Amino acid sequence: KPSNGDTGGMMSTPRLMEDREEHKHLGEENPGPFPFSEFESRFVAMLFNETNVNTDSSLFDFGCPDVMINVHSGGRYILRPHDSKYSRPKHDALQSLLSEILLMRHCKDCIQANSIVALYKSLGTLGDYMEESCSPLINFTWEIYIDEEAASKGDCFGAYNPRKKADYEEVMNTWGDASETLLEHALYIKKKGVEPYIKFMNG
Questions:
Q1: Angle ∠(147,102,198) on CA atoms, nearest 5
Q2: What is the C-alpha to C-alpha distance for residues 43 and 124, in angstroms, rounded to an integer?
Q3: Model pLDDT, residue 87
Q4: How far apart are CA 115 and CA 29, in angstroms?
Q5: What's the half-sphere exposure (Cβ side, CA atoms, 13 Å) at 116?
Q6: pTM score, two decimals?
Q7: pLDDT tens, 61-93?
């Protein structure tokens, strides 16, 4: 559940709020006057019937997703919760195995890890919110693109968005294929179960 602290994002517990000053990125944290003060955050919470949001969410009661992927640009990462504390997610063994598969098949130069171990410290994130709320079987943050040269020149748009057609197509093809792979495995996991899947994949 969201904390009672001063944040407009998806802060999950009061404990996270206590560590906020220690872990926040300068310039990246934009706290609001109250939890879910951002309309984007309210909408996502409505999708999963978050009762703490002051709105009628009865039309959006989808429950907990089996697969949750939060897609960003700003690096080359396949990340698992948590972003804000040194704690592994409920389904870390499964997500770690899937991360390795995605790494080998689709993004060999990516870093895969629990977010905070990869020094990806961030608060109020969707991944942590969903992990604290209902622990989806598969819960990833994908960082799919970064142009370091553009970033070094202060080109914010170019750093996070491919300007060349070939670069754009490479990003779309790589992560489109990764999405298909993840969906195939997710369907198998739903059919057979988590433990049989892990045992089968580990030989």
A1: 155
A2: 15
A3: 81
A4: 16
A5: 18
A6: 0.75
A7: 567 788 989 898 888 989 888 877 778 888 999
